[in-house]
Amino acid sequence: MFDSVGKNLVKASNLLVQLFENFDNRVELVKEISDLEHENDLLTHEIFKKLNQTFLTPIDREDIHALASRMDDFLDFMWGAAHRSQIFKIKESTEAAAALAKTLVLAAELVYKALSFLRSKKYSYILDHCIEIHSLENQTDTIFREALGKMFDEIKDPITIIKWKEVYENLEGAADRCEDVANTLETIVVKNA
Fold it and tell me: DSSP per residue over 36-100, as a string?
C-alpha cells in the first residue's frame, strides 16, 4: 500500500509541474490531482484499518501511522496549491511556481525510492535519500522566499498578491510535509538498523 501511495505522490507532483508550466489544461490537471488525493485518502484509511487488524507489524505501529499520515499530508498540500490556482482563477503561472513544483517531483521520487529500500531493509540508502530530501526542502525555501520578495516588489494588486501567496505557501508546505516524511523514515531507520 505504501508503494501505491508513493506512486501517487510521483504522479501528482508531475501533474503539478504540467499545471504550473501551462494553465491551458488546468481544469483537467486539477481534477487528476484531486483524484489522486482522494485515492491516497482511501489508501491511508486502508493502511490504518490494516494496522488496527494486525498484531505483529514489520515496523513499529506508530511509525507506520506517522509515515502514512505524512505522505497523505504531502499530497494534500500539492492538491491545495493546484486547487487554489483554479478557484482563485489565476490567469497565468509564474516561473517560481513551476520551479517549486519541480522540486516536489524530485522529492516525491526520492520518497518513492526510499520506500522500496524500506521494504528491502537497505537502511543506509534510505538515509542517503532523506539527506537529498532535506536539501530539496532547503532549495524550496529559497525559491519560496525569493518568489515572495519578487511578488511584493512587482505586483501592485493586493488581491493578486493574496492569491499567489496562498499558492506559494501550499507549494512550500508540500516540501515541508515531504521533509516530515523523510524525518519519519529516519526514525524508522534508527529504530530498525
Answer: HHHHHHHHHHHHHHHHHH-SS-SS-HHHHHHHHHHHHHHHHHHHHHHHHHHHTT--S--HHHHHH
